[in-house]
Design a protein that fits this description.
mainly alpha; Peroxidase, domain 1; Peroxidase, domain 2; 2 domains; two-stranded antiparallel ribbon
Length: 319
């Protein structure tokens, strides 16, 4: 029996070793125009819908943080499966980003059929849009395959929520190999985009410091209980620019989400908030490193995934 077990381990190790590695020039021969196609599609979408960039950053995080960057969040539900994007926490993911991915994938399939994965598409789009907003340049490796599974039930309690404590956040990130410093750096993505009033308005009803900010938020969210789409920019100072203003706002008590403000007050994370508030270059360096690390977390390669023909559907129905 032990010989059979050893043989099985050797076969598994050999299979793992045979998996093709991610590389920066993965599509150099098979689809050299891939980057230009993706960039063009997302520039067009960002120009017509300026919230696309922030939405795509959020989509990338929700995809990668769960079980790796495998485009599982892009799958649509059907009669046989309730997919990740229909989990409660994902219902607010922006339609503009999904639409841009669909447009880019259609163009890719015309140019290079069955070649560029949706997971790589989302990673490259995130890199491009971050740069467009003035953020740091990312160095990405490519060659991810798309997931064969997407389940809404798998999402519960595995993505950070707007009412999470710092301890809960640290635990969630540590389970994926990320430090408190990387947690704070990745949270800097909130320097762009917006949050719906239902996620934070109640905490501004009273007792919150930065009184004028609280009054502005209350006015912006007036009647949100009956208007669920009401939202406020995460960074009300430079909402469309990727910079360190998010941290500077936290130092003034102007964090929109309770989780964000808590990072500036907890002893385990506040030193990083202070560092990034005072040094944008340090933030950019740490953010880029953390995103690059996240981009290779749990990726599928070789036979462990597929290259979807459509980003919202598996090539065949899941078993």
């Amino acid at each position: 029996m032990w010989r059979a077990a050893v043989a099985l381990l050797l076969l598994s190790a050999a299979a793992a070793a045979a998996e093709p590695p991610l590389t920066a020039d993965y599509y150099a021969q098979t689809c050299p125009q891939a980057a230009d196609i993706i960039t063009g599609a997302f520039i067009a979408k960002q120009t017509s819908s300026p919230t696309t960039a922030a939405g795509t950053l959020r989509l990338f995080f929700h995809d990668c943080f769960l079980d790796g960057c495998d485009a599982s969040v892009l799958i649509s539900s059907n009669a046989f499966n309730r997919a990740e994007r229909d989990a409660d926490i994902n219902l607010s993911l922006p339609g503009d980003s999904f639409d841009a991915i669909t447009r880019a994938k259609t163009a890719l399939e015309l140019a290079c059929p069955a070649t560029v994965s949706c997971a790589d598409l989302l990673a490259m789009a995130t890199r491009d849009l971050l740069s467009m907003l003035g953020g740091p340049l990312l160095t990405l490796k490519l060659g991810r395959k798309d997931s064969l599974v997407s389940s809404a039930e798998a999402v519960d309690r595995r993505l950070p929520r707007s009412n999470a404590t710092v301890s809960e956040l640290i635990t969630l990130f540590a389970a994926r190999g990320f430090s408190p410093r990387e947690l704070v750096a990745l949270s800097g993505a909130h320097t762009v985009g917006f949050a719906h009033c239902s996620e934070f308005a109640a905490r501004f009803d009273g007792g919150v410091r930065a009184g004028e900010f609280a009054r502005v938020v209350r006015r912006a969210c007036a009647g949100y209980e009956k208007r669920p789409t009401l939202a406020v920019f995460n960074d009300v100072v430079t909402p469309s620019k990727f910079d360190n203003m998010y941290y500077r706002n936290l130092m003034r008590g102007m964090g929109l989400l309770a989780t964000d403000q808590a990072l500036a007050e907890d002893r385990r994370t506040r030193r990083y908030v202070r560092r990034y508030a005072g040094n944008q270059t340090a933030f950019f360096v740490d953010f880029a490193r953390a995103v690059e690390k996240l981009s290779v977390y749990g990726v599928k390669t070789g036979r462990h995934g597929e290259v979807r023909r459509r980003c919202d559907q598996f090539n065949s129905l899941p078993l």
